[in-house]
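for the writeup, i need someone to sanity check this before i put it in the appendix. the sequnce is what the collaborator sent (i think, or maybe the updated version? ugh). structure was predicted straight from it, no edits. if anything looks off just tell me and ill rerun, i have time this weekend
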Amino acid sequence: MIDAYGMNSAAVRLSPENPLSSLPADISWIDLLCPSHEEETYLEQLLGISLPTRDDLKDIEPSSRLYSENGTTYMTASLVWKSDTDTPEITDISFILTGNRLITIRYGDPRAFRLFVAALQRQPEESRNGTMMLARLLETISDRTAEILEQTVQKMDMLSTQVFGEGSRGKRRPPRYLEDRLMDVATHHRMVSKVRDSLMSLSRLLGYLSGRPALQKDAEAHELCQTVARDVHSLSEHAAFLGTNISFLLDASLGLINVEQNAIIKIFSIASVVFLPPTLVASIYGMNFQFMPELNLHFGYPLALALMLVSAIVPFYVFRWKGWL
């Protein structure tokens, strides 16, 4: 699917089935979403440049993601998407500046692109050139990344309350409660990890873009990109802080699981100690010696039962007095 956006911010669908001899002069952004081979070939003929395929995006090494060729700037960034699910992913998106046009090639649909399209009509027409389009698109991506981190912070606060909250004290937790919280910690860790990868990729792209002649000629776009670069740096630091908090939650959850397990072992240990003296008494009177005077007593049996009961009660109260129970 190929959508082209011009000065009026309305999308024009380009298709090989209805080919154009040339692109309208006011087209400043061409967005390719999961393009077919025929669509890529058609657009290459219209633009007179080569476009990276899906396999090319997968095979691009980190050191070869940013380059210029015949006056065209090729940049590839890894962006997080599916952030509203428990399985966020990273998708590679290519940004191409050729002449006064921006071309994006993507095989994922991050929400930032839909937000950017919705905000196109609010941009002044004089700033709808390819360079400014790229700067504002990167700004939207940065803002969306900040929103993802804010949502993650809220979820982590809820998780922290569930693990350490006042409501959980003095109450018996459901079975496998903390184990389920560990799964939540793993979900948040995956999200923050993907966001950090995305921010690192954006930072490299912005650093490379700031040295391109097309950006240096546009003072407004250059200033906006510098602002976005500072935002990305701040978000990277915030993501690192969240990563530290997630590690703390993981360690704390594992520690609480160990405490609960130790409490269970403690109960069994105390029970075994409490029943040890009665077992000793029963073992003594279960011996088959010939001379055991208590066996001939009329009240020997109730005396043995009372002795076993007292030997069980005394250790129990001793443990209570020591604060072990």
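DSSP finds nine helices and seven strands in the chain. The mean pLDDT is 81.
thx in advance!!
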